[in-house]
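hey team, just a heads up i'm posting the complex here instead of the shared drive bc the drive is being weird again. everything in one block, sequence lines first with there labels, then the predicted structure for the whole assembly after. its two chains so it's a bit long, scroll down
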Amino acid sequence: MTMNAGPPLLEIDRLSIDAVSAGRQVRLVDEVSLNLQAGQVLGLVGESGCGKSLLSYSILRLLEPGLRIAGGNIRLEGKSLTDLSERKIRAIRGNEISMIFQEPLTALNPVFTVGDQVAEVFRTHRGMSKAEARRKAVDALAEVGVPSPEIRVTQYPADLSGGMRQRVMIAMALACRPKVLIADEPTTALDATIQAQILELMRGLQRNFGTAIIFISHDLGVVAEVADRVAVLYCGRVVEEAPVAELFQNPRHPYTRGLMRAVPQPDAEVMPAILHEIKGNVPRPGHLPGGCRFHPRCPIARDICTTSDPQRIKVGADHHVACWEATDAH
Amino acid sequence: MLSHILKRLGHTVLVIIGISIISFVFLQLSGDPVGLMLPQDATSQQIEELRHKLGLDDPVIFQYLRFAGNALQGDLGRSLFSNEPVAGLILERLPATVELAFFSMAFALVIALPIGIVSALKRGTIIDTASMILALFGLSMPHFWLGIMMIMLFSVQLGWLPTSGRGSFLHIIMPAAAMGISMVALFARLTRSTMLEVLGQDYVRTARAKGLPGYLVIGKHALKNAMIPVITMIGMEFGLLLGGAVIIETVFAWPGVGRLIVQAIMDRDYPVVQGAVMLLAMVFVMVNLLVDLAYGWLDPNVSLQGESK
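-- predicted structure starts here --
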């Protein structure tokens, strides 16, 4: 995968998201900038509460009431999404950009057949007739490896296994051949073998259709398997961003290193007696520490880290990090 | 689906048998009608004769079996006072009661569902608060008072609607509204709360993420799920409407079963009471059977479980 090939397909430009309640504003995502090239897979990694899901929902303007985009911009092929009318953003949802979610059971509506839910996408975005959309739904399920799709379309989500449900979600998301697929922890709720199958499926579809993917996960191991580039989020900020191989060989941010140590290493020569964890908890939004946000949990924190926020700097070809340790080394 | 229906029908038959036993036993416990039927100075011999004639001296189990056997042939006995067949007395009035219950429910739902849905969508706004207060207002007014006020306004002052009786569609508007209005609050609140719950579900987010227009997200994906508890409540409230229409029937001189039952209870005319209780219970059970079937249609997982067992 070549990097920096032309203008980005999807550009997140200094995006901030606030929670507003009872007149109080709390910043949850703070001036995050990310680029997604066509056909690329961008991994978004961080602990829960780091803002990675909010970031992904804000792209399609699916933030819940009480959350709002407070600044910055999101552009698809140079066209801003943040100020589109409701009707125009609707034409993009599920059509040019689509999403799949963590929990395929709850993400599918229990009272409609699987076929109906897939066919809806064709009816909405392609204006197809009911019968036509139904035929296309069968094809779409076949594409994602659902066996006997002509029977499956008449079944309800409860009749399907977890893996099959996630395949249905993927079929639905890819029905209109979107340019971007946002996958929010798509394999977290699945057991390990199914997880591997779904990842394999996503990789295959991504190669065939050339869909760019934003792959969100708390699991660096999973991200390593699918992503071309990885951005690590901590407390609403990107702390490190690099091509996947570079990040794993040369992690520069102590948080990234912490996440890596927290992943079990099946091929390590000696299994560590205990799995490392990052000490402390993610600070609550609105109660962020001064200076570098990671300093209370950081093993190499110094005086400057408690008072001053490190700037994002370039530490290698296409490798950026925001940490005083890296700043001093350059 | 067919086996689901058959199974529910089987349940229904059992419930009706149970109701017949319970209503029979309770009426037996409530006292002897013979004392009321005969003059006060009747001799004990006269009392015994009448008891024998009515079959009241047989063991209770025989009395029940005789009642049940006759009931199966459509004979619910005769009124102890007018000597008319009970089945005829009730069936003459039952359609009026069912009609009133049906229109009251329709009135309540036509108002309550939109209020509930809009309140949920506009949660926390002035629209939400105002409609909930309005709905509560309807619940707080006793329906006999509301009925009288309506008669004074729409019949006496404006002359738009007939004051009482049953006949044209105009006759049913006021009694149905007076009964229905107290259920508006109930259904509006229920719709609002289930709708709010459903709107927070992942599948609603999925529907939006697919690019569906708002009317499909709300009117299809959210509403069908939110209707499941509402349908259940409709079935239960329908029973109250059937049995509890006495006051409204009195206010509007509506020729329903409610007034017949009250009169029969006063007279200890137990064949009439028993027959009316049985028939109302049967209507109630049939309505709940329909509700059950509607439930199976709304929520496919319900009927599937029923079939696999």
